[in-house]
Give the backbone structure.
Amino acid sequence: MTHRTQKAHTMIDSPAVCPACNADQLPGTPWCTHCRPYVARPEIGRLSPPIRRLGAHLLDSILPVGVMILILSGATAFGGGRLSWYVALLMLAAYVFVALLLFVQGTTPGKRLLHMRVIKETGDNATFLTMLGREWIGKWISGALLLLGYLWILFDRENQGLHDKLLRTYVVEHR
Ligand SMILES: [Zn+2]
């Protein structure tokens, strides 16, 4: 392992002009402010806009709750007792298991459905531990601050929420 200076830890140096749209690039950000790809390494993808971030977040919130409600209401309709709770818990465990598997790939069920993933400042996929911290701790903090941590996404030049700032992550989407 080479020694990383603080500068190397922050960002890959980006070209002065976006290769896709020729717009001048702001110093200190690798994202084209016009067409939004990662200009130094376009294969990484585009910075995901807030509306898609919201969509993924809603999917991630609604999917597990929806599955639980469906199972429990279905079980109630068929007069199920304790067994239906076991099935519901089993489904929830399965969902958590799938989510954890996707964390390894730097994504979540909702983001996966919308072709999005989380990357680190280096451009590499977020690691399992980063995802765990981001999704289950960082987002809780963002929400606990009267959702200010989420609203930050709208006003941040690089669309980072508080949970992104804390874990130094960005959300990108595939073309
Ligand atoms: Zn551009």
Q: What stands out?
A: Residues 18, 20-21, 23, 32, 34-35 surround zinc ion (CB under 6 Å).
